[in-house]
Design goal:
heterodimer; A: alpha/beta; Rossmann fold; 10 strands; B: mainly alpha; ABC transporter involved in vitamin B12 uptake, BtuC; 2 domains; two-stranded antiparallel sheet; two-stranded antiparallel ribbon; 4 strands; globular
Chain lengths: ~240, ~400
């Protein structure tokens, strides 16, 4: 299948800290790929590097056949990479509806914006109920829905999800993961970063294990889930 | 004696209101930039000045060509606004953006840069004016149409007085409340809705009692009169306030401005280039400042490269008083400050038995600034546009 996104030995630094030490991975069309690993392994950094929030010092990021590293974040979004950042980062003093509309900032076609908004409300009826509320007044789960909905408003070719389960009650985590699977069924390609490795490997097609800035294991999700090392380190034995 | 003083009140309040609208217009520029960048753009007073000077030049150049004073004013407003907007965007581009790109985290650095830009602009305008006119004091021409005085209908005059009294009492009651809260070291962060209702109720009560007690003195047979140019100031600044509120709350650009103000990094994930939005913010703020400059020139006639300093710092006080970063707050702060200043200017002499004259009215503004910063740094309405989380 066609490669949508490819990282070729990407090195990223935060000041003097060598956060990514030659990360290579690929995401093919229609896949859910998950990136698992412990705290501080560089999962979030990988996503931030892809979406241009930090620039890689070495290596290449290729999106749909074109190099996108060194482009600023707002240019990378235009190419079709939607990023749901860690901690959701919704705009607290914009209403739910404004949050969604700002997600479609690059689209000038009002018709298309209205249609996508209807789709998001269809996916997350809770958001429709709260459309006039300020983003900051939503619960954690609702904020996560809003953050995903906001990214969907750009109709991205690939969706980067950073820890969508963080800080949510188990019921909500299940709901969010159902949505992720549903989105994938509707044709979205997804790169999912998760600490909850068990859950991530359940929904993903393939996975990568990241350890202190390096990919140590990769393979189909079921295989990783059976792997002894992975079990010991991330799946609680 | 006291009754005589009270009988002056309506016209003093009206004058204060007009002055307040001028402050409000300038304060909008401070507040918008602060909302987005958390930067106090001290160069804004010089952006205002460049609008005032450009307006003067326009009036002087085109006085012979355009006979209709209203059309001439419109042209001057557009040119003054455009020049100020250009200056504003240039300051951002040449002074603030390079600092941002370098990732300066020290907040003093941009502040000092702003002050430097301020001095630079003063002397730049002085140089240009000196080379061009061989003098840098410029005078706005006067027009009969703008100088003409109109009597307000009695009902309108009454409304103006009652609203001004209410604003005035509210500001006083509110400030006393906050000083009280602070002195009592209470934990309360922002007034609840009920507190606001109670304070408003109290102010209404004061307003009613005051106007009933001094009814005869307050409504004179002559009524209130207002000059055309003052009326123009009020109309234009109201239009600016409502226009800006509409822009920030209802348009795509406005939503983008607020998004960048809240979280610039995440905004860039939406495809927004924060630099473009910041530049637009300076453009809008600068334009409004320039228009304010032209109207200021129309009101007070004389403009020069250093004319921006005092109105600028007072407008800054107004912005802080209303709650910096908050557009409605800038208007409220401007009006309250304008009225307090006029009241101070008129009554200080009487209150102090002549020890302090009108010239002390400026002190009032700065005493208020200090009090606000001490007791209620977030201002009357608190911050709205930015509020980082």
């Amino acid at each position: 299948m066609k490669k949508v996104l490819e990282l070729k030995s990407v090195h990223t630094y935060y000041g003097h800290i060598h956060a990514l030490k030659g990360v290579s991975l690929e995401v093919r069309e229609g896949e859910i790929v998950t990136l698992i690993g412990a705290n501080g392994a560089g999962k979030t950094t990988t996503l931030r590097t892809i979406s241009g929030m930090v620039a890689p010092r070495e290596g290449e990021i290729i999106f749909e056949g074109q190099r996108v590293n060194h482009l600023p974040a707002y240019e990378i979004v235009k190419r079709g990479i939607g990023h749901v950042p860690e901690g959701r980062r919704i705009f607290p003093r914009l209403t739910v509806e404004e949050n969604l509309e700002i997600g479609a900032y690059l689209t000038n076609d009002r018709q298309a914006v209205a249609e996508r908004k209807a789709e998001v409300f269809d996916l997350f009826p809770r958001l429709a109920e709260r459309r006039r509320q300020l983003g900051g007044t939503l619960s954690g789960g609702e904020q996560q829905m809003l953050a995903i909905g906001r990214a969907l408003m750009q109709d991205p070719r690939i969706l980067l999800l950073d820890e969508p389960s963080m800080g949510l009650a188990p019921v909500l985590v299940d709901a969010i993961f159902e949505i992720i699977v549903e989105l994938n069924k509707r044709g979205k390609t997804i790169l999912l970063v998760e600490q909850n490795a068990l859950l991530a490997l359940k929904v993903a097609h393939r996975g990568y294990v990241l350890q202190t800035g390096e990919i140590t294991l990769e393979g189909p999700a079921e295989e990783l889930a059976r792997n002894e090392e992975v079990k010991k380190a991330y799946l609680g034995g | 004696m006291f009754e005589v003083l009270i009988s002056l009140l309506p016209s003093v309040l009206l004058e204060g209101l007009i002055l307040g609208f001028v402050y409000a217009m300038i304060a909008l520029g401070y507040t918008m930039v602060y909302g987005v960048l958390e930067l106090i753009n001290f160069a804004h007073s010089e952006i205002f000045m460049s609008g005032a000077v450009a307006g003067a030049e326009t009036f002087i150049l085109l006085k012979g060509t355009i006979a209709n004073p209203y059309l001439l004013l419109l042209v001057a407003i557009i040119i003054g606004g455009a020049v100020a907007a250009f200056v504003s965007v240039s300051v951002e581009r040449l002074a603030y953006r390079p600092l941002r790109k370098r990732g300066t985290t020290n907040r003093l650095v941009p502040l000092i840069t702003a002050i430097g830009a301020s001095f630079f602009l003063q002397d730049l305008v002085r140089l240009i004016e000196g080379l061009w006119n061989n003098a840098f004091y410029r005078r706005y021409p006067t027009f009969d149409a703008f100088e003409r005085t109109y009597n307000l209908p009695v009902w309108l005059g009454d409304i103006v007085i009652i609203l001004s009294l209410f604003t005035f009492f509210f500001a006083i009651v509110y400030l006393i409340y906050w000083v009280g809260v602070r002195l009592a070291r209470a934990k309360q962060k922002r007034p609840t809705r009920n507190t606001l209702y109670a304070l408003s109720g109290l102010s209404i009560l004061f307003t009613v009692l005051f106007s009933l007690k001094y009814r005869e003195v307050l409504t004179t047979d002559m009524g209130l009169s207002i000059q055309m140019k003052s009326l123009l100031v009020i109309v234009v600044s109201l239009a600016m306030l409502f226009g800006l509120n509409w822009l920030v709350n209802k348009t795509k650009l406005g939503v983008a401005i607020r998004a960048v103000a809240q979280d610039a990094q995440t905004a860039s994930l939406m495809g927004i280039n924060p630099d473009v939005i910041i530049s637009r913010t300076f453009l809008i703020g600068g334009f409004l400042g320039g228009v304010a400059g032209v109207l200021f020139g129309l009101l007070y006639t004389l403009v020069h490269p250093y004319v921006g300093f005092i109105p600028g710092i007072k407008a800054f006080t107004a912005a802080v008083l209303g709650g910096i970063g908050n557009i409605t707050g800038a208007a409220v702060g401007g009006l309250v400050l304008g009225m307090l200043e006029m009241l101070g200017g008129t009554y200080l002499t009487f209150l102090t038995n002549g020890a302090m004259g009108t010239e002390y009215k400026d002190i009032l503004a700065f005493v208020i600034l200090i009090l606000i910063l001490l007791f209620r740094p977030q201002g009357i309405l608190g911050q709205q546009v930015g509020e980082k989380v």
